[in-house]
Amino acid sequence: MARPSDPELEGKILAAARKLWRKGGAGSLTMRAVAREAGTNTPAVYRRFRDRDDLLRGMLRRVRYEIAAEVDRAATVEEACEKYLEYALEHPWDYELFFQHNYELDHSPRASAEVERPARAVMNGKLQNRLGGTEKTRERMLLALWMLGHGAAMLLIDKSIPPEEAPEAKRVFSGAVKAVMREAEFLSKLKL
Predict the structure, then answer these.
(1) Using an 8 Å Cβ cutoff, are 148 and 179 in contact?
(2) CB 111 within 8 A of CB 117
(3) Buried b (16+ CB within 10 A) or exposed e, 37-52
């Protein structure tokens, strides 16, 4: 008689994989270790995830949605940028997965044609509500804000900015985002 399938097993596998990732990064993430951590067997993991990249893609999808949820809770674009930075600093291993594997997983031969980017969609909506403008203009703003956020996150995560200077660095980041938004609002009024 076949074992009844566990409808929550995929979630358990992804949670186990993220736990292992947080402990030791890519080197600790084997299908066998994930199965052991999830309390299942390796074939069960392979039935849900073709290979390690597919598992990484599943983890990345969850991280993307967590970031999007944080950004979505923000009332303003500025607050959304601060929440993005907070997420990166509070979850450095997950953020590492997000920035290190985002491109390679999205553009591998096995990646789906349509890449989900929920945080980008949320931020695009916030920018549209605030500035209007064209899709191209909003894409440029998204890129500028992402570059600011990612740069701040990496400088703080790898301690290029010493921890004792982190509060000031966060204030500088917030000021830079506000300056970019003031300039964007000015330009949007000029219809440039």
Answers:
(1) no
(2) no
(3) bbebeeebbeeebeee
CA distance 104 to 57: 10
pTM of the model: 0.86
Q: Are residues 170 and 118 in the same domain?
A: yes
The answer to whether residues 91 and 12 belong to one domain is: no
Name the amino acid, one letter, at 116: E
- Give me the number of domains the chain comprises: 2
Claim to verify: residue 70 and residue 132 sit in the same structural domain = yes
Give tens-digit pLDDT for 9-61: 999 999 999 999 999 888 889 999 999 999 999 999 999 999 998 899 899 88
Vertex 12: Cα angle to 6 and 18 (nearest 5): 160
